[in-house]
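Today's session is about reading a structure prediction critically. Students often jump straight to the picture, but the first step is always the sequence itself: look for stretches that repeat, for charged clusters, for runs of hydrophobic residues. Only then move on to the predicted structure, which in these notes is written as discrete structure tokens rather than atom positions. Here is the chain we will use throughout the hour.
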Amino acid sequence: MTHTVEKIGGTSIANTDVILDNVLVADRTPENMYDRIIVVSAYAGMTNMLLEHKKSGKPGVYSLFASAENKWEWSEALTELSKAMREKNAEVFGDHPDCKVADNFVLERVEGVRNCLIDLHRLCSYGQFRLDEHLMTVREMLAALGEAHSAHNTALLLRQRDINSVFVDLTGWRDEEKMTLDERIETSFRGVDFSKELPIVTGYASCLEGMVKLYDRGYTEVTFSRIGALTQASEAIIHKEFHLSSADPKLVGDDKVRKIGKTNYDVADQLSNMGMEAVHPKAAKGLRQAGIPLRVKNTFDPTDAGTIILEDFMPDDPRAEIVTGIPSLYAFELYEQDMVGVKGYDAEALKALTRHNVWIVTKCSNANTITHYVSAPRKSLKRAAADIEAVFENAEVSMRKVAIVSVIGANLNLDGLTARATTALFENNVRLLGLHQLTRNTDLQAIVAEEDYDEAVKVLHKALVEDHDEGKTESEISAAA
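Below is the predicted structure for this chain, in token form.
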């Protein structure tokens, strides 16, 4: 197959003019307009209103419905969502007749959801029906609204430009048949001619597995990945509002970061483990297994080829590619004097952390101590600690806030890498609390105090990326990438 599958993120799709001019249409001729599948996220901010704010935790429609502290507050939030969606329609379409078409689409979906939730609320007022048994289905249904809105609008916009776009709705709206994810995709694409039609696809897909249940807010990239694998795409492309760079330019500076250019899926996995939104780990796994290269492109720099991620790439020149990390997490430490030579401590700790849905970033251990570096609410960690101490009565479990800074590269087999990293941190008064390095040579993790995170990123980027490239020309740096 010669077609590509391309995913457009929420921030990018919200910038309608740019996404049309730089990605969807650009300077393409009618002959090369097609042979693409476009998977879109919800417009920036919409999923926050539907579920809850990703960063602040401010409740959206779902959280308000689930808490039921105010019986009808969720309905008011749904009305606000409908208003926000129609305001976006007005921004996108202006006074074009398609604005009315888009508004009618929003009203049909939103009011359909409202009626469903009212009926469910009424049903659960009877003792035989429990609301908590249906909440995941509600969350799935609400998440679907955002992607349906943006995909429908995008298809309308392209038709205005005489492009034969097709709205491919994977959300299962009013569909009585339950399907697996693969069945949903295969059924929806049946009859679509990629050479003559441009499918605009919802990033949410209704399926038996439950996309939000399994992947939370990363479901769009999993849908994108699975579409690529099932349709045997030649390449998968993610359009983001930035290049995949050697560090956060807001932290290090635009003039100091480097575009990665080329790397492998090992690096993509390490980035996912650090919570960096390059690509969801399940999405990367699907593309990797299907043998499909993944390209990350900057929406605002359309002529640049971006960064290509391959299965078998290994740079000849060892180098640190990215310095990133997690600015705030916990060191969850289990200490037990009698642990030496006794099995079971590690297994029980893992069971407790898994039971309380704690995300484990990395771990280390010695004779009598096991430390997991985790990201989770403190109350979840306290419950996990209580479970462990109930099993091992002499164990002491403690936790403290720390940060992880990770140096990542496809080939980190650099002479003196660890010495250069630790020396740079010492000389810049950044106290090192821990250091992890595996023999696979794809990452080096430094544990530092939470307040030292920003400085540690800058210091390590300077020592391992900027200084490594010092004296090289731009062409030499690009060639190395």
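Discussion point for the tutorial: The longest helix spans residues 98-123.
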